[in-house]
Amino acid sequence: IVKITLNGDPFELSRPVTVDSLLRRLEIDSRRVAVEYNLAVLKRAAYESTIVSDGDKVEIVNFVGGG
Predict the structure, then answer these.
(1) 66 pLDDT higher than 80
(2) Most exposed among 6, 37, 53, 60, judged by the fewest C-beta atoms under 10 Å?
């Protein structure tokens, strides 16, 4: 079991996954969010290569459109 902190709350994964896989699992459109990984903002190009492992901290911020 991989234990991470997701948006400030404990979250468990069965194994390490990429940020891209985590977003898909959470049904989040990667084009509409910003991801902070261990206190660093990730570029979207890094989502597929960044591995979320035990003890990592991930913050996902949704962009909200308005008018």
Answers:
(1) no
(2) 53
Question: What's the CA gap between 44 and 33, in Å, rounded?
Answer: 9
Longest dimension (CA), the chain: 43
Residue 64: which pLDDT band, with cuts at 50, 70 and 90? Answer: confident
DSSP E strands, the chain: 2-6, 9-13, 17-18, 33-37, 40-41, 51-52, 57-62
Query: pLDDT tens digits for 9-53?
Result: 999 999 999 999 999 999 999 999 999 999 999 999 999 999 999
Are the C-beta atoms of 18 and 49 separated by less than 8 Å?
yes
Cα 59 from Cα 67, distance rounded (Å): 26
Tokens describing residue 46: 């890094």
